[in-house]
């Protein structure tokens, strides 16, 4: 994404507000999920995902679930501390447990844009860790970690031909093992694909010009069967905010429909990005720093109100939002306009 990422989610510009009791949280959820993300309610407009439990006053972005849906992975960051790392939360006994860091996080080396492979045995992420043969310069590259006996192992770089002297972010693996990612190696943030053939990753190819425009594109979530792509475009004239989500459908191997803005029912006047469609394809989860229109007035009523707002997920931090994903509707919208 871009706070360091546009260079990584404009690479991105709570507190657990109540004490933990018996492994759970006393939060102010607006929606009760007896499942990690499924609910009996139809969510037509995005709502904050698990406020004060998963979405908190701390900046978080980028979502990925284990294939069974019971573990949620994401990136957490603190500009004040200069720390960016990968965290996860397990869903057990009807609630999310306290967040934990993956074993290999570092105080000094940022790790971002975590994604889990379709079969769940590989974690992909981006970091600027050094390694033998690393391209010259300061650059983020894609690394992987294998899940062995329930434990994530020491990560290794993907290396050539994926790595470049530019920055590679947001790796997403599809069913055949090929990966999509974004890179600024040609001077602009664009979306690339590296095909896996006979166990080897091929030279990355840039997606066509109707996807990669003169604007900056990033954070591409691609359906496991490659049937559609949802991605971020920054500062586009038809956009609603700093960055918006767009959707496009695959026509053939090298052709995609002209992307369509996902509209004000998804996008806001602020930052919107890091899209993720749940394994059952029923929900879209994404990152936003949107706030309610009256948040400033609420915060300034008294100093106590100010403390309450700034210590909650209403403080404008990057957090997660969920909405029903109507694939049929979007497909109809896209092909009507193409």
Structural write-up:
It is a single chain. By secondary structure, the protein is mainly β. The protein has a single domain, classed as Tachylectin-2, Chain A. Helices cover 7% and strands 36% of the residues. The chain has 3 helices and 25 strands. Strands 2, 3, 4, 5 and 6 form a 5-stranded antiparallel β-sheet that branches. Strands 7, 8, 9, 10 and 11 form a 5-stranded antiparallel β-sheet that branches. It starts with 46 loop residues before the first strand and ends with a helix. Residues 1-30 have low confidence and may be disordered.
What descriptors fit this protein?
338 residues; Tachylectin-2, Chain A; mainly beta; five-stranded antiparallel β-sheet; 36% strand
Helices and strands, with pairings:
Blueprint: E1 47-48, E2 59-65, E3 71-78, E4 83-92, E5 95-96, E6 100-101, E7 111-116, E8 122-127, E9 141-148, E10 151-152, E11 156-157, E12 168-173, E13 179-183, E14 190-194, E15 196-197, E16 200-201, E17 205-206, E18 216-222, E19 228-234, E20 243-252, E21 255-256, E22 260-261, E23 272-277, E24 283-288, H1 295-299, H2 303-310, E25 319-324, H3 327-337
Antiparallel strand pairs: 1-25, 2-3, 3-4, 4-5, 4-6, 7-8, 8-9, 9-10, 9-11, 12-13, 13-14, 14-17, 15-16, 18-19, 19-20, 20-21, 20-22, 23-24, 24-25
């Amino acid at each position: 994404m871009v706070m360091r990422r546009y260079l990584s989610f404009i690479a991105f510009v709570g507190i657990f507000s109540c004490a933990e009791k018996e492994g759970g949280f006393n939060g102010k959820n607006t929606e009760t999920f007896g499942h990690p993300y499924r609910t009996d309610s139809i969510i037509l407009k995005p709502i904050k995902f698990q406020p004060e439990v998963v979405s908190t006053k701390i900046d978080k972005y980028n979502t990925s679930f284990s294939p069974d849906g019971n573990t949620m992975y994401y990136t957490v960051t603190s500009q004040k501390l200069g720390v960016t790392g990968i965290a996860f939360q397990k869903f057990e006994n009807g609630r999310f447990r306290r967040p934990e860091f993956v074993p290999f996080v570092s105080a000094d080396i940022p790790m971002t844009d975590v994604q889990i492979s379709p079969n769940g045995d590989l974690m992909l992420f981006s970091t600027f860790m050094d390694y033998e043969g690393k391209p010259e310069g300061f650059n983020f590259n894609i690394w992987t970690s294998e899940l062995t006996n329930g434990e994530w192992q020491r990560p290794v770089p993907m290396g050539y031909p994926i790595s470049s002297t530019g920055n590679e972010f947001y790796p997403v693996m599809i069913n055949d093992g090929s990966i999509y990612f974004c890179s600024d190696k040609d001077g602009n943030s664009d979306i690339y694909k590296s095909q896996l053939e006979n166990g080897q990753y091929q030279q990355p190819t840039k997606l066509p010009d109707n996807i990669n425009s003169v604007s900056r594109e990033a954070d591409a979530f691609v359906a496991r069967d490659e049937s559609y792509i949802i991605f971020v475009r920054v500062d586009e004239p038809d956009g609603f905010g700093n960055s918006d989500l767009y959707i496009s459908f695959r026509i053939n191997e090298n052709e995609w429909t002209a992307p369509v803005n996902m509209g004000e029912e998804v996008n806001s006047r602020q930052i919107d990005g890091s899209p993720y469609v749940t394994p059952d394809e029923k929900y879209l989860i994404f990152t936003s720093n949107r706030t309610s229109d009256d948040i400033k007035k609420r915060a300034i009523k008294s100093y106590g109100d100010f403390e309450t707002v700034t210590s909650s997920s209403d403080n404008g931090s990057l957090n997660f939002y969920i909405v029903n994903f109507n694939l049929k509707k979007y497909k109809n919208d896209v092909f009507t306009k193409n």
